[in-house]
Amino acid sequence: MTTVLDSRLLGDVLRDILRPFDLPPVEDVATRRRLARTLLSGRDNGSFDGLALAYAVIAFCASTEDDTARVLEALRDNADALVLDGVLGGYVLLPCAQDGQLALARDLYEQLGLDVWMGVTWAPRRDLAAARATAQDVLRIASRRAPGVYELRNVLADFAVLRQPHVAERLARVIEPVVAQRPLLDALRAFIGEDGNRTAAARRLDIHRSTLDHRLRLIERLTGCRPTSPRALLTLSVALTAHSAPDVPLPPTH
């Protein structure tokens, strides 16, 4: 039978295993940046003593340089954080046990109190380069949505398309006629944002519901996909991602 004391001792041991003991001083920002770049690029040969065995990988972006600076300021006193920063975004590595990455990212997001976007994943040190690529793609998709914390499971369909360029190209062609007409594009985005609720979408656009219905019929005529069908709406949503998923402003890792 495990006692409370046993549980605390085990927790202390696990924290010690995951904590990077011998990192440079907190104020040595440049060295921490180099460590983060090396780990995220996949050039870690296991020679860095004292680093954690696994990390939460958080790719983030903000809408202004000031907000990015506030993110970095919030992380400056975190002795465990490795940060690779850019002008409007960056990467954060935080020591993390498996399945703990979402809680860490949400805690950071709530601490910031800013409109920032985060794509988060987890990996042991040897797989951090692949985890970085996943977090970056999750962030690309999430940056078109409301600010917040996103994992791969939140954007699976869009992610799959981004990883298949030939599929993404075909879907982008399907949605192009809609993208070319701003009222139709706004109607589709609002309809997707309200999960197919026409009343809520019309309210968001400040138009009559019959006007929205007319625009949805035009979208169907142009694309062959009926937006009021859940399956077709998913296709249209993914097509929008394929057409306009932005390149997020993240620093290079090579």
List the helices and strands and how they pair.
Blueprint: H1 4-18, H2 29-41, E1 54-62, H3 65-76, E2 82-85, E3 89-95, H4 101-112, E4 116-124, H5 128-142, E5 148-150, H6 156-162, H7 165-179, H8 182-193, H9 198-205, H10 209-223, H11 230-244
Parallel strand pairs: 4-5
Antiparallel strand pairs: 1-3, 1-4, 2-3
Helix pairs in contact: 6-11, 7-11, 8-9, 8-10, 9-10
What is the N-to-C order of secondary-structure elements (H for helix, E for strand)?
A: HHEHEEHEHEHHHHHH
* Helix/sheet category: alpha+beta
Ranges with pLDDT <50 over ≥5 residues? Answer: 1-26
Compute the separation of the termini in Å: 50 Å
Biggest sheet overview: 5 strands, mixed
In spatial order, strands of the major sheet run: 2-3-1-4-5
How many DSSP E strands?
Answer: 5
Strand content: 5-15%
Helix content: 40-55%
How would you state the average pLDDT, rounded? 87
Radius of gyration: 22 Å
Q: Total number of helical segments? A: 11
General shape: elongated
Question: What's a concise summary of this model?
Answer:
With 254 residues, this protein is an alpha+beta fold.
Describe this protein's structure:
- The chain is α+β, with helices and mostly antiparallel strands.
- The chain has eleven helices and five strands, in the order ααβαββαβαβαααααα.
- The chain has a five-stranded mixed β-sheet.
- A hairpin with a 3-residue loop joins strand 2 and strand 3 (89-95).
- It starts with a helix and ends in a 10-residue tail after the last helix.
- The model is unreliable at 1-26 (pLDDT under 50).
